[in-house]
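Re: Re: C-alpha cell formats

Sure, here are both.
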Amino acid sequence: MILDLHNHTRWSFDCSMDPAKVVRLAKARGIDAIAITDHDEIDGAREAQKAAGGEILVILGEEIDTAAGDILGLFLREKIVEHDPIEAIRAIHQQGGLAVLAHPFTKTKSVDEPVARALDGCEGFNARHSELGSYEGADGEPRVASFAKEYDLSLTAGSDAHFYRELARARTIVSASTLDEAKEQIRRGNTVLSGRRSSPFNLLASVALRSMKSLIHPEPE
C-alpha cells in the first residue's frame, strides 16, 4: 500500500485546496491512502473522506502546533485540542492514533527527551522541508534517522502538500491492504520511504496565501 501521510486542504490557514480535488488527484497519481492533516483542524479530513467514496482511503489526521514543533495525529476520530506536546500525544493515543513528529528540526532544533520517547514516529522525508532532493529507502535523512534510532521511532514520508502540484511527491510504502493493517505496520516501523523535494517557492507561496486569507477572514480580536 502506498500512503502519503501529510497533506493540507482549504481548512488550513495557508492552503486553498479543495478536499474533493485533493483525493481525486492523489488517486490519479498512484496513492492508495492519503492523510489529510490540516493545521489544528480535522474537518478537511472529514470532507475528503466523504468525497473519496471508497475510491481512495482517507486517514483522518491533524497537524498540531506544539512547543516541541508540529506533531501529526494520524488515524484520529476527533479533533485534538491540546497544544502541550505530551498532552497532545496522550490525546492522540487515547483515540488509538499515531503521533508523528512533522518535519523534524525545522521549527525547533531539538526535541525534549520525554516528548521524543512519547512519540510513535517522525517524518524521515518531508517533500517541503527535506534537505535532500530525493530519497528512496528505509532510514530517512541522516540526522532524522539517528534521532529515530535513538528513540525507537518509526519513519514516515509526507508531501506536506499545500498546492495541487505538490500532491503525491512523498510516499510511505507498507505491506497492508487495510488502514488498520497500515497503521500497525507503521507502528512497527515496517516502512519504506520514497520522495522528491518540492520547489522552495511553494513555501513562499504559502506565506503569501496565508496573508491573503487573513485579510479576507481576519482573526477576531
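Second one below.
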Amino acid sequence: MRIIHTSDWHLGHQLLGISRQFEQQQFLDWLFEQLVQQKIDALLVAGDIFDSANPPAWAWQLLYRFLARVKQQLPQLDLVLVAGNHDSPSKLDAPDQLFKAFDIHLIGSLPRLENNQLDFDKLIVELTNKEGVVAARVAAVPFLRAGDLELGSFDDEVPDKLIAGVERIYQQLAAKITELNQPTQASIALGHAYMVSSQISEMSERRILGGNQHALPIDMLTQGYDYAGLGHLHRPQQLGGQAVYYCGSPIAMSLAEIDYKHQVKLLEFKDGELLRVDPLLVPRRVELIKVPATPLPLSQVLSLLADLTVIEQPLEQQPLLEVLVLLEQPQAMLRDKIAEAIADKAVRLVKITTSYLKVSDNSTDYPDEMLNQLEPEQVFSLKYLAQFNDKPPAKYTQAFSELLTSYQQQDN
C-alpha cells in the first residue's frame, strides 16, 4: 500500500499582504500528479487545511476543486483530512453528510457518542489497497482543544491533565485499531500537535495545546502505531528516530522558511510493515530572495540590488524579496530608495528588515512593547544578531528550544 502524508496547506494564506493563491493552486496540481504517478492508495492531510477560521471564497474553491478532481479521476483513492489549530472545526464538519456520500473523511471536531465515548466509527478510517483489501486503519484525530479532553475525569495527582487527556485519546484509538486489525494490517496515527524535541520555525508556528504551551511526548505515538503523520510544524522532521514525522508545509509560510525543503511524505507498507518513508520535494513555483544574506550598510545593499538579476515573469510568479539593511540610525525614505533600486526588476518587495549597529554593551536594543509581541525564539535570534551580526547557528537554536521546552514543562 502506498500513502502520501501532507499537512499545513494554509489555503487562503497571505505573506505580508501577498496572496499565495497561485502557489497553492500549483501545489495542488502537483500533488494530484503525484497521486497518479506514484500510484497512491490513500492521501492523509494532517490539519491546517486553511490559514484561518474564515478563509476567503477562493480558498474553499481550491479545496473543493481538488477533492472533486481526485474523486472523479481516482475514485478508489482514500481521502482522510483532519482539522488543525488554524481551521474552524464547525465549518469543516458542516459538509459531513455530503462528503460521506463521496467517501471523503474530513474531521473537524472530535466526535463523541451520546455516552461521551469516542466515536470510533468516525475516528478510525479503513484504507484499502489496489485490490480493495483493507491494508491499514488510521486514527484520524483533529487538533485537540481542552474541551475535548474531559480533564475533570483526572484526579489531582496527574501532573499535567492536558497532556494526559491527549495521550488517553490516542491510546484508546490505538487499542481499538489493534483489536480490529489483522497481523497484515497497519496502524497509522494522523494528528495535529506540537511534540517534544521538535523544531519550530520563526514567525510562523507556536507551541499549541488547549491554548497553552505544552509539548507532547513522542512515545504516545509509538505505542500501537506503525506510523504517525503529524501536522503543525512547517519544517519537515523525524522525531526521536521513530516512525513519527512532520511532513511540513508544502510552500513557505514565512520568510524564515526560505531554506526549507518543502515536501510531502511517501509511505509504503507491505503486510502491515512500514517499508520506507521517502520525501517528495515540492517544486517552489515562486522564489524567496533575501538580499543580502546578512544585514549590510545601505550603500552596499543598494549596489547589490542594482546588480540583482531576475527573469521577466507574470506578477504572480515574480520572486518575493526581503531586503536586510544595517543602519546607524533610522533612515529617511528608506523604502523609497530600495524601491527605486529595484524599479526595473521583476520582483515583489515584501519586507525590509532593519538592524542597528550596537552602540553599547549595556544598551537596551529593543523596547518592551516590541519584546512582548515576540516568541522567545525570536528574542533569542534578535539578541544573537545584535551581538554577533548574524543569525544563530541551527545547533544553538535547537539547544535554546530544548531548554525552553524543559523550563515550560517544569513551570507547568
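DSSP finds eleven helices and 17 strands in the chain. Residues 288-411 form one domain.
- S.
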